[in-house]
Amino acid sequence: MSIKVVHYINQFFAGIGGEEKADTKPFVADELPPISQQLNDKLGDDFEVVASVVCGDTYYNENESDAKKELLEMIGKFEPEFFIAGPAFNAGRYGVAAGSISKAVKEELNIPVITGMFAENPGCDMYKKDVYIISTKNSAAGMRKAIKSMTAFSKKLFSEEGIGTPEEDGYFAQGRRVNYFSEQTGSKRAVEMLVKKINGEEFTTEYPMPDFDRVDPAPAIKDITKARVALVTSGGIVPKGNPDKIESSSASKYGTYEIGDLTDLDSTNGETAHGGYDPVYANEDPDRVLPLDVLVNMEKEGKIGSLHKRWYATVGNGTSIANAKKYGAEIAKKLKEDNVEAVILTST
Fold it and tell me: What is d(CA 323, CA 232) in angstroms, rounded to the nearest whole number?
């Protein structure tokens, strides 16, 4: 008997459409989409992909509880023995959804699950300790290799041999420690690593530490009463109607908005696009997140030199590190070109 597999994909890989179909509600595909069929073929005779379940990225992320419940009911009807989601590559909302539903299937249906993502996908950091996430390239250009890696891992997962280390089997480390017998004592291994480090040679630590960017603080503004100050936010404050359609999670863009004659943001001219916090108070008075009114008054009172006549906004909720760095660099370049000397960066 073949191992029954259910495959989860988003609207794009189901062949429905792109962003314009991201609000697609969960459903079971009438027949296996090409990506699911490819997965089925590569898994071999010991596995059978019996169904593909589909959900739009926006729908899942904005209705996680309901979407999860709907999908679990659909998946459970097939009585699967294995669940695969993605691969999601570096698509942030897809990655978050794939990680979320994989964790739910593992916990609720009590079956093995895997998914695949690029290292900087926000779903990777969120769910790598809960489910096996196979490392992939950052885009679907790496599909062939991703399918190969995921199917190889799947076969090993169900073999007597079992899963090895993250380095051996290509998944992201889950922080689990496994006892093993070494021919050398810990002290000897430590000294050997130290010697290699002193000599500038390569070595692999047995206890990797988190790697965080460090940014040196900029020098203090010498005279803020003469400085041009700009407003930038990751809190999603945009003009009414969200003209650039910035996503509520895993934003794929940022917006540039002219202040013009605006002196105050309210429910008639502004709102938040952010899906990671209760929007009621921000929509009621967007100044609570982007303090335009305060800066306008400070300019009138001479407390700042001038207020830059445009603001920049995006959504930090689930946005990948790579995109966040890209947006930051682009915005900083524009601010410098406009001779902005200080920035008030607000979040949520």
Answer: 16
DSSP tag of 316: -
- Single-letter residue type at 125: D
DSSP 274: -
What is the per-residue DSSP string for 82-149? EEEE---TT-HHHHHHHHHHHHHHHHHH---EEEEE-TT-HHHHHHTTTSEEEE--SSGGGHHHHHHH
**Along the chain (348 residues), what's the average pLDDT of each consecutive run of 10 residues?**
94 91 93 95 94 94 91 96 94 91 96 94 89 93 94 93 88 82 89 93 81 80 94 96 90 92 94 91 95 96 95 88 85 95 92
For residue 314, which of 274, 270, 263, 268 has the smallest C-alpha distance? 274
* CA gap 332, 81 in Å, rounded: 50
Crossing angle of helices 34-43 and 143-157, rounded to 10°: 40
Measured CA angle at 333 (ends 330, 336), to 5 deg: 150
> Of 118, 93, 344, which is closest to residue 230 (Cα–Cα)?
344
Q: Collect all residues with Cβ–Cβ distance below 8 Å to 120 and sequence separation of at least 6.
A: 90, 138, 320, 321, 322
Rg, the chain, Cα only: 24
What residues form DSSP beta bridges with 171?
A: 134
pLDDT of residue 15: 92
Closest by Cα among 71, 54, 72 to 17: 54
Nearest partner of 13 among 52, 47, 44, 42, judged by Cα = 52
Q: Do the Cβ atoms of 53 and 6 come closer than 8 Å?
A: yes
Q: Nearest CA to 139 among 124, 118, 123? A: 118
3-state secondary structure of 48: strand
In angstroms, the CA 281 to CA 235 distance is 12
Matching residue, tokens 């938040």? 272
- Sign of dihedral through CA atoms 259, 261, 263, 267? negative
Amino acid at the residue 82: F
Q: How far apart are CA 346 and CA 172, in angstroms?
A: 32
